[in-house]
Design goal:
The complex is a heterodimer of chains A (269) and B (743).
Chain A (H helix, E strand, L loop, with lengths): L13 H14 L13 H8 L5 H13 L7 H20 L12 H12 L3 H6 L1 H12 L2 H4 L8 E8 L8 E7 L2 E8 L9 E2 L1 H5 L3 E6 L10 E10 L6 E8 L5 E3 L2 E5 L8
Antiparallel strand pairs in A: 1-6, 1-9, 2-5, 2-7, 3-6, 4-5, 7-8
Chain B lengths: L1 H10 L6 H26 L16 E2 L5 E3 L2 E3 L7 E5 L15 H4 L5 E7 L5 E4 L2 E11 L2 E11 L6 E8 L5 E9 L2 E4 L1 E4 H14 L2 E9 L2 E9 L4 E11 L1 E3 L2 E6 L18 E3 L2 H5 L5 E3 L9 E9 L4 E5 L14 E5 L11 E7 L6 E7 L4 E8 L14 E7 L7 H16 L5 E7 L3 E3 L5 E2 L2 H13 L8 H9 L9 E7 L6 H11 L4 E7 L5 H10 L4 E4 L6 H12 L4 E8 L2 E6 L12 E8 L2 E11 L2 E11 L7 H23 L5 H15 L6 E7 L10 E4 L25 H9 L1
Parallel strand pairs in B: 7-20, 9-39, 18-19, 26-27, 26-30, 30-31, 31-32
Antiparallel strand pairs in B: 1-4, 2-3, 4-5, 5-6, 7-8, 8-15, 9-14, 10-11, 10-15, 12-38, 13-14, 13-38, 16-17, 17-23, 20-22, 21-23, 24-25, 25-35, 27-28, 27-29, 33-36, 34-35, 36-37
Helix pairs in contact in B: 6-7, 6-11, 8-9, 9-10, 12-13
The chains are: A alpha+beta (269), B alpha+beta (743).
Chain lengths: 269, 743
Amino acid sequence: MELPEPHSTPSRLPSEGQERLRRDLAEVGLSAVELPHVTDQAIRAAIRSHVRSPRDAATHVDLAATRSHRHVPWTKWIRTAAVAAVITLVAWLSISVPNGERSIDARLVAAARIVERAKDRQAVLADPRLRALLTAVVAMPKSLRSPSSPGGEFVQFDLMLDDPRALPLSWLVEVELPGTLVGIEGGVGPFAEPATYDPDALASGWVRLANVATDVAVGEGPIRIATLMVQRGDLGAPRVLEHVGVGAAGESFALAVRCVERVKGGNEQ
Amino acid sequence: MTLRTSLLRAVRPFMARRLIMLALSMLTIVSISSCSTQVEQESRPRHAIGERERGSQPPARAEGLLGRSGSLEILVDAPFDEIWVIARESGAPRQERRADDVAVERPGTGALVSTTLDDRGLPTRAFPLESTRIQASLDGPIATVQVAQRFSNPFSDTIEAAYVFPLPHDAAVSDFLMRIGNRSIRGIVRERAEAQRIYADARASGYVASLLTEERPNIFMERVANIEPGLAVDVELTYFNMLAYADGWYEWRFPLVVGPRFNPPGTRDPIPALPVGGSARQGAVDGVEYLRPGQRTGHLVDVDVTLDAGFPIDEIECPSHAVSPAERERHTTRVRMTAHDVEANRDFLLRYRVAGKEPRHGLVSSIGPDGQGTFALTIYPPTEMREAGRMPIDIVFLVDRSGSMRGRPLEQARQAMRCALDHLRPEDRFQIVDFGSDAGAFGDSMRWADAVAISEAKRYIDSIESNGGTMVLTGLSKALAFPKHEGRVQYIAVLGDGFVSNEAEIYASLHESLGDRRVFALGVGSSVNWHLMSRMAAVGCGAVAAIALDTDARVPMGRFMDAVTRPIMQGTRLEWSGVRVDDVWPRRMPDLIAGRPVTIVGRYERGGRATARLRGWVRGEEASSVHNLVFADTPDDTLGSRSIDRLWARAKIAQIADDALASRRSVEGAEREILSTALTYGISSPYTAFVAVDASRVTEGTRRTTVVQPVPLPEGVEYGTTVGVGLPSDARSPETDRRELEK
């Protein structure tokens, strides 16, 4: 099957990304892998696409792993498909169905996050257990793969910049949300207009936001640079994964950004 | 869940044993697919096609009541208001539509109408859509357009507003904002079903939310939930599209109203043309409600266009509306609509021409940091080939005589055809097919265009009367039945307004039966369905032309006939060198005719100098023209670069849909790729939607009433022959008409 063509994807990462990947791997009981290089588009496309069987999924994973269409031995197909089928079955059987809402096994959610975030697909895919998990995730119906469950409550998360003296001209923040992003409200002062989001990243399951200051006013205390409207999918807390600001001279620096849930009925800051 | 539970019990004891696991792998595949199917079935409305609403209330009139009474909700106490409230039982059956639409439709769909008097004492109906403000920025060939709609609530309880509106068929909607007071919330593009579920959840929970769905490439539905009394919600969307170019003029067209669609029997996804309140009687908001002649809604329209032509502007005009005198510089100008209380019943059209000779080509390109670029290339007919001699032609005129063409539109079509006949020569052959509910023809075979035949044909044209539905497929099938003459190209010239909802079936039929015939589409009227016309022409490697109601139809038809009889290049294709070019849309290029350039979009790797060689056949001989181009090789992140990306994605989606209709690929595969493309580029598509929720507070009110925004009929279209046609009888009952007449 033909994989969609690569599209421009800003590369990022190094150490923090590796650390996060190690954490995620630990969550699913796997050892850390080395992460020498970046190449992720093909695997994300594979994850996004719907496949009809574990065998299809195995083919996707193979194609993505090699970054080119090469001949895949049929024995490899069968082997990976068989392991994937077992994992898929176990996952499917272990799906909890509380009050009619579906939520997928946490290990698979974690696996999905790993492969979506990890930058060295080759290294990740070299791990046979993770490879099989990935194949199972790809083989799953998308409705089961989605980490968010329908019908959750609507909540707001404020992105707070703690040190307004280091006000950037523009910023980029990546955040992991415990649910589905359903709106982005502007913040205050120079970031009153709503931030933009990267649809390509969103399609792959993470939220990457950016905004440009409309003036240079500097206030006192923490300032709200955006508010995220979220339909909650689980009880987890949001995590800020990347937080980069760009100053007037074009220099980039890390921002002190927090993502905090706003209490219902509470005042905005 | 029974199957799952049984399997769970059976499998658990052996879970660790690999052999049994392997044996179960095949079962897993079956289980996954059955599970997926089950989820789909659970979300599907349990109504059969055509099933009527049971237990629905007939329209009831509330006379000055306030508060709630039984199943009726009375929402207004304005002194001059006349109020109708139509409520229905929640969960009542409705016509089957897309399975994923059901979540949005369910609770409390109703209709609410009030009438007030305007400043002149004329009856004006109060509806949620207060105004539409269009701000367009035309930079060279690309338009960036911001459409802001203000929905307010003139009633006394919280409402949901629903509005069906048009956009250009090639519009790539890429941004969506909801403004409440001084707060702005950016909407998010999601898979359509997911967006609808989020919206339905937000609506049911009492949050202000909005949803933008694409019903057709040129028809969109906007819904805004939980608008509190006296408050307003602004919805802003931004789209990009390419300017058209015809006969020396660049044209920017903005449609202001959706024409009433005829839904042939068996249409899979109809768009009913309903009288006011018809949605409630249908039990679903899935059609367009039309005002009767003379009725107004108080909807204000403002169009503000800033133009940077890139070349000295020679001439500029707005034939559709009164506009303020242009603030004109050498290359730039600004045009604004003068009157804002005009009826939004025709396209806004701005045309301009630039000084100097027509260029050979125009290239807009941008490249990303990864070395992948996107471009839009327009190639104008080469000057050296324009002196082509006249070729004998075979032409079949396919004219729409349905009810929507009654009156001025059909008269324009007649005048255009008489002009076309005058352009024929004895060595040409022709035929005329007219269609409404059925199809008729001037003769049984192609006729030589001698004086006798032309005279008889003109009498036949004069005898064509409008009535009935718009069975395009019937007419098309009759037109395609005329055999082709060996060695001659047969042209199909379609004249009509395109007011049908079965576009997909028409494209599929064309793909199947057209062969190497060429299709040219002439849109007649003030608000033509350009999606249908353009796609028909694209499938048939032809072009489109517009015949407005208030112009001399002989002018565009004369130009069209000149172009058709003197084709510049046929069977065109492009060959590239210097830069690697890929994913060029449309895949099949149209013929090159006088006054009509060809525009393509595509991707490239690493910019620089390149050569595009246009090859094709000129009067039976192979010919080519060379175009030296320079593709951008430095990354930028300007609005222009983002617009080209999205225009390319939109063109790709159109090509994928076209491939599926032509059976060149599976429908399922096409759906997946369209969804993936639309999500990656964050644009609207049939399978994506924009949703925005304000989770800051829960509104007050019952949240049960949906107010559908009715629209005027397009200028020149008659109400009696178009609205309510083919609907269940109670959708336009005598009682309804009596009440309408009382007003």
